[in-house]
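Class, carefully examine what follows:
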Amino acid sequence: MIDRRELTLGGQVWVFETGRVAKQAGGGVTVRCGDTMVLGTATMSREPREGLDFFPLTCDFEERMYSVGKIPGGFFKREGKLSERAVLTSRLIDRPLRPLFPSGMRNDVQVVAMTLSVTQECPPDIVGVNAASAALTISDIPWNGPIGAVRVGLIDDEFVLNPSREALEHSALDLVVAGSIDAIIMVEAGASEVPEAVVLDAMRFGHDAVKEICSFLIEWRAAVGKPHRTVKVKTVAPDLVDIVRAAYATEIRATLFNPDKATREDAVSELQSSIVRKLAEQFPDRANELNEAVGKVLKQELRSMIIEERRRPDGRGPEDIRTITCEVGILPRAHGSALFTRGQTQVLSVATLGGTSEDQMIDGLGEESTKEYMHHYNFPPYSVGEVRPMRGPGRREIGHGALAERALRAVLPAKEVFPYVIRVVSDVLESNGSTSMGSTCGSTLALMDAGVPIKAPVSGIAMGLMTDGDKYVVLSDIQGTEDFGGDMDFKVTGTEAGVTAMQMDTKIAGIPWQVMEEAVAQARAGRLHIMSRMLAAIEIPRDELSLHAPRILSLEISPEKIGELIGPGGKTIKKIQADTGTKIDIEQDGRVFVAAADGESGARAVKMIEALTREFVVGQSFIGKITRLMGKGAMMEISPGKEGLIPTHELSHHRIGRPDDVVKIGDEVEAKIIGIDAQGRVDLSRKACLDPNTEPEPAQISPPRPDRGDRFGDRGDRRGGPRGDRGGDRGGDRGGDRPGDRFGRDRGDRPDRDRDRPESAFADRELAPPPPPPPAPAAEAPPSADRAPRGDIPPRPPSSGETPVSARFRPPKRLA
């Protein structure tokens, strides 16, 4: 049975439907907002997996290109592995769902959100999270939901619920809030230095909408939800836990207290094995349960030590930050490099600058776009002393890299100010917690070392939480053990002015507002402390780029001149690049970026581009080389690939016969523009730049070019040939007094092919003297008496070697 319900949220109508598709899944729904439609499914295995110490939940966001009317690119023309955006959305779905499953559940659960139709008016990521929640809510899978998710924007100082992609471009805040009807469970945000108080208000605004979604799904579950299946939950034997705590609690606490990670972990592992061996004598059949019991007591004692004694494993207090050291410029050939060390977490960040053509093209469900700033995060196994195969980046690496990228995006300079593509790579060399925030700090230092004029430095900190009933402690700068045994991982990045990025995950059913406010305030104090240590290493971005970084110069030309700059088949731009050793990128709006190895070659390329694309105005003067000599005058190069004509009478104040009387090919002369025709052809004058009183006389004066107008004008006054008169008054055509051409067709206004031919067609012709005039015909003698009248002469018979006229003009044979 199909059940369809509507929810109005922030002026948008959301349509939830079940019973039409995916009926064999544990739960299957479609959620529609505008023209965006996502299918959400949730399925669970029948039996739990043995030997696991974690909950096997898989969340996938499947992008279907047909949802936006596209055919996938590539050779196979089908969807392949998840895109980066799909991976981030999959994590966005996973993080609020996971804390609400029963503790100890080991059945495989797979949640899939698949796009069916997508419009950018309603982005599919938020629809996907709500579709996944709805599928779980009405399914037979044990789950303590539902949850809801919304996006909050800040436009003109007003909060906007679920803004479109276009509206987000003008928003100072991009905040995703997910939670239950009682509390917030997950936060993901990017901001343009928004104050912490405003971010908290945005969270409250978003959670109010989340409550509406949760109430709607609870009512829907009551109407169409399936009964939950009974699953086997793995628990730790309470009796063994009590035995381990009573006998070894003091020893466990002492072992946990050690500032060195490797030493502490080795000691804890050895103690755990020792306890299991000793208790195995009493409980020989419960070795696995003993190991789990010892692990649980370890977490309980860590929590107790922090909450009751306010003492952390490395000896710090709740608000203390680990020792920080910062170094910059440590790699000689890199454009910018930094080594950020905080306790036993160490990150090497390296910045590389490139030309505008090296940006990343994004071809996903949205419109095609490019990315000029990229951050890539790597977490090799040696950073934690482990051995494992090194493959491509996993979901964790992609997520951490995206967080650090978002943290700095708000402070990057505009492309008009700094026209470079920037890539930062953060390699984790040591890890003991907070590596993503170490990458953020290292990226800031590397960018400043590279000379990138960022608006303000950005630092980041990871906050933790330990709870025990109503008691809790918020921890600053958490390390690995506290992250593993704690209840919250709350990362905050920002400048002194405000927040640039935020990410919060929990292991409990939500964070109370009092804890949230305390964590945000404590995070600000911590990251400002970290920033002071960073600024001690490098206070402001370097004034000069690295010697090994390319120099990129920018200029703007008229979009109408782009074709002239490129040239036929790219000939002009390729020549400029070859002559100067630069790389030139052209934007459709007329912006031109020149990347060069040094400033001198870049400036030379810019000068050539400016000369080629400049707008010519009558009265401008140029100095250029004579490139060609013609009968009409001399051609002078006024810019690369652009010539102007200096007519002969404009070459000199003196009377000259030919252009080569005063100029030769290769001479550099100064000339002024005296005219520009409709086709953009430029007429120049050399004499306008000369003083008639001081101009020297030409060394020689050649005879003027003879009048050759008879080649193009009236040729009718010519004698006829042996076949009779062809002349008459024909006015230059070839048809006697017939209008039109020799085939009797009317030529109309067709231009004369020779008269309108460009001067370049005659450039290579020799200026030879005209041929001598033909001799005058002899006077015809009067007829004598002994000569017969002309009309009485019989026709001459053809000679033996002459073809008769009738044979010479035989009509062609008809083709078969």
Summary: The two ends are 77 Å apart (CA to CA). The mean pLDDT is 87. The chain has 15 helices and 29 strands. The first strand starts at residue 3 and ends at 9.
